[in-house]
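Q: I'm a student working through a structural biology exercise. My instructor gave each of us a protein and asked us to get a predicted structure, then write a short paragraph describing it. Mine is Amino acid ABC transporter substrate-binding protein, PAAT family (TC 3.A.1.3.-). I'm not confident about reading structure output yet, so if you can add a plain explanation after the tokens, that would really help. Here is the sequence I was given:
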Amino acid sequence: MTDRRSFIKTALIMGSFAVSGLSLAAPLAAEELDTLKEKGVMRIAMSGAYPPFNFVSDSNEVVGFDPAIGTEINKRIGLETEIVTTAWDGIIGGLLANKYDAIVGSMTITDERAEVVDFVGPYYTTGRAIFSKPGSGIASLDDLKDVKVGVTLGETHEAWAKEKGYKVRTYKGLPELLLELENGRVDAIVNDSIAAILALKENGYEYEMFNDPETEPFGAGIAIRKNNPELKAAMQEALDAMMEDGTYTAIAEEWIGEDIR
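A: Happy to help. First, here is the predicted structure for Amino acid ABC transporter substrate-binding protein, PAAT family (TC 3.A.1.3.-). I'll explain a few features afterward.
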């Protein structure tokens, strides 16, 4: 998935196969929750390259806000959690190919994605922001027209930047984006505001930023395969309960430093 068109085309094609494959077995599709309970484990996918939401720790464990949220949801519906890391640009394809059971990786809910997957949530809200080094002179969208703009491959920001006609360079994840900006190989990066601010501060990088004035804040959701209403309802119920009883807030404060719903 290297641009918006290819993402939509690939997702829709794979989605049509998935839906057609389930059409003759609709009663079974609604029982995916029962199948997971029989196995006793849910496999949740993320990039592992999006700190502090999901990243690989010094002890080689995938940790962060996303794994904690996914693990707590699974615990409440009686499941253990297995975390799978995979490249972001192919993550929806992997879900539709049954390589894992859900994506808990800070995925922005969009109409295109909702055509091929169902979403639980949103489980937090953020917005698009543009980051540059101090003194860059980049302070508006117009200033991006003649500079190199870094984005993560397969994210909604990539499609947005290409639609704008910017000179786009794609990378595997946020850590790589930050290094490219710090080393001057790109002039600006586009990312979800919360994750980038926290990662920049964690690394001690100085930066300037502004929020995209044309895009409203957006929600991140948990993606699951379509035609699984029981699984979706159980996961949403668990998420809602977490938000009501204080568990969500505790997880958010541990990994993000504040409530971000």
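A: Here are two points you could use in your paragraph. The longest strand covers residues 117-126. Confidence is low (pLDDT under 50) at residues 1-30. It's a good idea to check both against the output above yourself.
Q: Great, thank you!
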